[in-house]
Write a structure and sequence with these properties.
The chain is built from six helices and 20 strands. With 404 residues, the protein is of the alpha+beta class.
Amino acid sequence: MGCFKLNTKANTEEVIYMRKYNKDKKKATKKEKNRTKDGKVSKQVIQISLGGVITVIVTIAGAVVGATWLVANNLGELRSDIVALDKDIDTINTEISEMSSEISVMSDYLYNDGGVQDQLGDINKLLGMNPINASLDITSSIGKVSMQPNDIGYVTSSITSETCIGTDSDGNVYIAEDLINETILLTYFEDDKEVYFLGQYNENYKWNGYCVTNAYNLDGTLYGICESNFDNGKRLDYKSFCYLNKTEWIYSDKICNEDENSGINILYSFNYEKIKNFTNTNARITDILYVDKFIETSEANMLKYYSGNTFDGKYNDDSGNAYEVVYNDDGTVKMLYVGEFVNGTFCDDDAWSIVYSENYEFYVHNTGKFENGKAVNKSTEPISIDEINEIISSYNFDCELKWK
């Protein structure tokens, strides 16, 4: 900066040029060429000096302004980042609080009474359960809850506190009072069937909660599955899948009422010849089969579908809203009947059906009186699919209706 001040001062004051003494005058410095005769700095030199100074000043000023703008801009962005960071911190704190609450709930779910830890303990206990060979004192009581149930919902129990439940493969004897509310796996023979029963009784020695039975033929093939829920000896519902003949099985899913059961029955065509790989001494809870899961993994073909009430083991429904569908081998509807049932057959003075005629290859609509499972006055007039859809539009059917 000192050089700039020196050059600038030459604009107002006289500068005396002091030449260095030398015998050889020709050695004078080149600066003399830039001076006038009176010894002052020339105008050209001043202009060049001022121009350089101004350029430098402008450059510095620009740099200062740019730096100032950059600093201000960075400060603005920094403030925005700080504000955003504050919001992020608030959000993080909220999420941490929520996670803390969820962890607390999860901890309760995992470790408190009745939590996952207890449930896993119960599962391990069940998995390690030894089957009990049921005594004669209890088999009659089990038989009432085991397979296709009767229409009386209340199941009496002959169990008392001193009843011998049975003996396991290790020779341990179990008395009823020692197994109250304990899930037990019982095995026994009934006629020509080998039965596996999983369930429990309460402090009143009455069947309570969920119970399931698997029955096998003597050759080890499955005969049937039955699941029920009980409330202090009263059957609330049942679901079963039972063998009828070599190729047909019947599925039931019913609610138990006072004097009848309501729900569905499905007749399936099904071949199942798998032989069980366990015995009554080494069976485990994992060997138990369950109805819905069993059907899902099978290739059963639906033949008939009934929805309505049953009594005395037969279709009996006087509501007029019961229905049955009979299917062809290709899954299309062969016959649909809506009306009353008596002793398993169509019996109504005012019912209707839609039937496919194999001879004429079209559907007909029968209405009026039905006896012994048939329409008294059979129609011979064909109806279209649109007409069928119009007829059934005011009804709710829980099964698939696919028409030829």
